[in-house]
Amino acid sequence: MTKILLILVIAAVIESIGVAILSKGLKEIPEAREMTAREIARVIKCGAMNAKVLTGTALEAVFYGALLYMLKVRDLSFIWPLTSMGFVVTALAARFLLGEKVSGLRWSGVLMIALGAFLISYSERDKEHRSEAGPAASSAPFRPE
Fold this sequence. Notes:
This protein is mainly α. It has one domain (2-139). 79% of the residues lie in helices and 0% in strands. The protein has 7 helices and no strands. The radius of gyration is 21 Å and the shape is elongated. 17% of the residues are buried.
C-alpha cells in the first residue's frame, strides 16, 4: 500500500501544479469578441499555442496515466476518494503559486477533505489486516444472532 500512496502523493502534486499552470495560461487567452466560428477558432488557436496551457495539459496527462495504473492495481472505492487529496495540494498551489487568497472557510473544507482521505486509507489498512488473518476472517458474511 505504501507504493500506491507514494504514487498518489506524487500524482496529486503533479496534477495540482498542472492545474495551477493551466489556470494561469487560460487567463492569458483573450476572450471571444463575438460568437462566430472564426472567433472561436481564434480563441482555440491562442489556447493551443499557449505554453502554460500546453504544460498544464501535459501534467494533467501524467496524472491521468498514474490514475490509470492505480485503478488497475487497487479498488476504485479506495483510489478515487483518495485522489481528493489533490484538492489539498491544489489549494496550496493556488495560494503559493498563484497568490490567491484562500479563506479560512476554504481551509476548513480542505482539512475535512484531508480527514476523509485519512479515513479511507485507514479502511484499506484494516482490509489488508483482515485478509492477512485468513480467508474465513475476510469473506465470512456478517450474520447477527
